[in-house]
Each structure stands twice: as C-alpha cells, then as structure tokens.
Amino acid sequence: MKTFALDRLLNLKITDISFCEFKDFDANEYFKYCFGIVRPENAVVEEVKLSFTPKQGKYIKSLPLHATQKIIIDNDDEFVITLSIFITYDFIQEILQYGDEVKVIKPDSLVKTIKQIHENALRRY
C-alpha cells in the first residue's frame, strides 16, 4: 500500500493503466495509529507519554494530537497524555513545535531522539 500527498501532485494525467482495488481494505484501521498519512513499513505501535505545561495542556485538551489520546493527569502542575502511534518524522516535528512546553516521558527511544535534537540545536548558538 502506498499513500500520496495529493497537494503535491503535478501534471496529473489520465491513463489506461488500471489497478486492483483491495476489497477488504479498511482505511480507518490502516491509518489508526498513524500521525498524518505516513505509515512506516514494519513499524510497531508504541505508547508515547507526554507531559505538557498546564497552559499548553488546555490547547492539547481542546485539540487532541491523535484519536488514541488519553488524559492521564490534568492539574495545575502538568497535563499528561498517552498516545498509541507509529513514531514518525512528522510526529517528532509535532513534538518539537511545543518547545519547552512539552517533555517526552516515554518511550526512552523518543526521549533520546528529542533530547539529541535539542542538544544539537543548542550547539548552534
């Protein structure tokens, strides 16, 4: 299965080439753990735990990051959620946009990735 970003298609042409439709394909199930349209081959669904500042938590609560989002803690000190997703470049970029208002708690591999990106960015200053 391949996915394509329709907004990036150029020079679309109708041809006589046909395709075989997957009769049992369920798009909702296929993309259930995806962040965006990317579903990595051989990827494993991981539980991600994120801690946000209370201020950012209000935003995340009103506009969830993903359908699997569950609120674990919602108080005056922090807003903690879990997500069950494939960890992709797009998801990492989403986390990075929250800057110092988010902390990755788990999985350890994602903690290390985000930490390394921030350390690399800091060295540029």
Description of the molecule:
The chain has 125 residues and is an alpha+beta fold. It has a single domain (6-123), classed as Alpha-Beta Plaits, CATH 3.30.70. The protein is 30% helix and 19% strand. It has 4 helices and 4 strands. The protein has helices at 27-30, 54-62, 89-96, 108-123, and strands at 46-52, 70-74, 79-85, 102-106. A 4-stranded antiparallel sheet has the order 2-3-1-4, covered by helices on one side. A hairpin with a 4-residue loop joins strand 2 (70-74) and strand 3. It is globular and about 60 Å long. 11% of the residues are buried. The model has no long low-confidence stretch (mean pLDDT 93).
CATH class, named Alpha Beta
Helix-strand sequence: HEHEEHEH
Count of DSSP-assigned helices: 4
- The structural domain count equals 1
Most strands sheet: 4 strands, antiparallel
The strand count comes to 4
CATH topology group: Alpha-Beta Plaits
List keywords for this structure.
125 residues, alpha+beta, 4 helices, Alpha-Beta Plaits, four-stranded antiparallel β-sheet
List the topology elements:
Blueprint lengths: L26 H4 L15 E7 L1 H9 L7 E5 L4 E7 L3 H8 L5 E5 L1 H16 L2
Antiparallel strand pairs: 1-3, 1-4, 2-3
